[in-house]
Amino acid sequence: MKHSATFSDLATGPQARAVRPLPEPALTYFPDVRFVLSDRDLTAGAAPIPDGAAMVDDQPHVPVLLDRCVELLAPALTRQNPDGSGATLVDATLGAGGHSERFLAEFPGLRLIGLDRDPDALRIAGQRLAPFADRITLVRTRYDGIAEAVAESDCAAKGVDAILFDLGVSSMQLDRPERGFSYSTDAPLDMRMDAESDLTAAEILNTYDEKALARLLREYGEERFAGRIAAHIVRRRATAPLRTTGELVELLYQAIPAPARRTGGHPAKRTFQALRIAVNAELESLRRAIPAALAVLRPGGRIAVMAYQSLEDRIVKSEFTAATASRTPPGLPVELPGHGPEFVALTRGAERAGAEEIDRNPRSAPVRLRALEKVGGEQR
């Protein structure tokens, strides 16, 4: 875990690697490539910047469900003072800092701990949040490092008042094609959220055996043609290794049957999702992060989690269901004192973005928002 106490080392980042549009064969295979949304892609082309959007490195950044997140977490942040004095919010997925900026501006006494594994995100968020520098601590860590980050802060003894997770790949990462997360431009097969980690998408594609590739695509991408795709990958790399996103897109055209390519969104979506999840160990990290986050909340504290695909949401739903269940042994006719649920749900199931928000911010279309309040027990 690496802390960032100042913003000077966040002001500059590594030079971006050159990217280029997909080669014409790939555009022929997928003629709608410039127009189909991925889970959190903005519309392609010169789309107007939505009202309220901030510019991050010359790109529009629109936080998802921003008003609803503030509405859900504000009661926990204003229990002591209306301006948030004495309260601490953990933004466990800092990204470009859009959600954090709103909370810091709306609650001028609030303190923030921002977590992100991506040094580019910390640099950009540090610049964006510079006006609030005396109230924030930025920590370079995955979100399953939340317990350690809180333990090293000045709120270690009392716990935190609110926690926000905005899962998946960030808009900043999608908007930088040189990172290799997008299938709409030709770039190195990277997909690392932390550029200092070892595993890349190219290494997975070029070294995993066929069975392991098929399992990865099936489990993390829910790809029904996982076996066909894995076989094509193994045959292709026997001639030359896969190095770019464009090469992978062309291979997927060959592997996926034509009728399937014409339905269900972009044909590369599931494979890219699976590789990204595997490279960054996202699901394993999330399984550890949610219980750790619940444990550091103070009684009366709140947590909100936004998920963008079913694999993430299943984990969140399972952990939240367990947290809101009675701890009385099954079969007893009454609930034992002190064994009631430690958390209560603030949302009825998973909330979705409304039509107006989706029109303003297409990235909000797949979001599923769940939130809890801690009503009993001590800080665990």
TrEMBL record:
UniProt subcellular location: Cytoplasm
Binding site for S-adenosyl-L-methionine: 97-99, 116, 143, 166, 173
Gene3D superfamilies: Putative methyltransferase TM0872, insert domain, Vaccinia Virus protein VP39
Gene Ontology terms: cellular component: cytoplasm
Chief site of localization: cytoplasm
Pfam families found in the cross-reference section: Methyltransf_5 (PF01795)
Enzyme class per UniProt: transferase
Alphabetized PANTHER family for the sequence: 12S RRNA N4-METHYLCYTIDINE METHYLTRANSFERASE, S-ADENOSYL-METHYLTRANSFERASE MRAW
Entry protein name: Ribosomal RNA small subunit methyltransferase H
Organism: Mycolicibacterium chubuense (strain NBB4) (Mycobacterium chubuense)
Lineage of producing organism: Bacteria, Bacillati, Actinomycetota, Actinomycetes, Mycobacteriales
